[in-house]
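Example S7 (structure tokens).
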């Protein structure tokens, strides 16, 4: 079957590079001196990866994540897909389940107040990253910034995602070209509702402390 390149280059309501000049402009600025598509991918990936990670809504537009300058796995991945598609590099979403990162969430769980509601999330989480086509599909996970990763390592944690598998050891991935419907459905199942802004703000304080730890010499 021939590779349908076009379906992985289209915009959507959430992947809104067609309606946001800023997305393509930033992608072009980052890749202005690149000689290959691989170099372009690396430049855009590095930019999105280093945006600070923080809990947020699942169904944000890519332009909103770019404007805010931070996001969680779904928002940062959506921005990466949008920026790559805006410069003609095919990309698709990859959705799967992971186990909670014990060291990371235990550290944040030491916070008081509404951050204690973190315990309600359970041991399994949804995760969003993407795959990029450069002659073959390449995995790209821009979720955690480097300062956060260094903080996790200093606390004795591991960076590899612990993926949920079935009884045969298989990971079940969804790989949609457009993830709007999934993102909206996931947002509708959000654990925190009326007070999620306050809960997220408290938890994100913990992430900032983790980054400070990661930046220490």
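Recovered sequence:
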């Amino acid at each position: 079957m021939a590779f349908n390149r076009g379906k992985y280059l289209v915009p959507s309501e959430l992947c809104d590079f067609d309606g946001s000049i800023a997305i393509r402009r930033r992608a072009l600025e980052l890749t202005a001196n690149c000689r290959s598509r691989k170099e372009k991918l690396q430049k855009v990936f590095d930019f999105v990866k280093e945006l600070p990670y923080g809990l947020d809504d699942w169904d944000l537009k890519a332009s909103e994540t770019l404007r805010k300058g931070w996001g969680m796995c779904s928002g940062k991945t959506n921005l990466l897909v949008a920026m790559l598609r805006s410069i003609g590099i095919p990309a698709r979403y990859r959705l799967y389940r992971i186990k909670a990162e014990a060291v990371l969430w235990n550290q944040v769980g030491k916070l008081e107040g509404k951050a204690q509601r973190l315990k309600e999330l359970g041991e399994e989480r949804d995760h969003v990253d993407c795959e990029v086509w450069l002659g073959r599909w390449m995995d790209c996970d821009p979720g955690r910034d480097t300062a956060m990763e260094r903080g996790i390592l200093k606390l004795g944690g591991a960076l590899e995602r612990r993926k949920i598998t079935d009884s045969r050891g298989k990971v079940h991935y969804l790989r949609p070209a457009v993830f709007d419907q999934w993102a909206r459905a996931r947002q509708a199942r959000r654990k925190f509702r009326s007070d999620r802004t306050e809960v997220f703000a408290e938890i994100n304080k913990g992430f900032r402390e983790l980054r400070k730890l990661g930046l220490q010499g």
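Notes on this example. The longest helix spans residues 196-215.
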